[in-house]
Design brief:
Helix content is 9%, strand content 25%. With 67 residues, it is mostly beta strands. It has a single domain, classed as N-terminal domain of TfIIb. The radius of gyration is 12 Å and the shape is globular.
């Protein structure tokens, strides 16, 4: 049953937290990322596997500065 969060197991979303802030994550289906608003980071999902490493995360601060 993946109606709630397509592409990511809902049970997995219930237990995953941001490794930096320990806060909740939001699934961004368009970018295939798990977003931590609290930490300002977006963790990539590759081949259906969330890469929860801060070094692999994209900073949300840079979104507004790109042309």
């Amino acid at each position: 049953m993946t109606d709630r969060v397509p592409g990511i197991d809902p049970k997995l979303m219930e237990i995953l937290v941001c490794p930096v802030s320990k806060g909740p994550l939001r699934y961004d289906a368009a970018r295939q990322e798990l977003v931590s608003e609290k930490a300002g980071l977006a963790y990539p999902i590759r081949d259906g596997i969330p890469i929860m490493l801060p070094d692999e995360a994209r900073s949300l601060d840079t979104e507004g500065t790109r042309p």
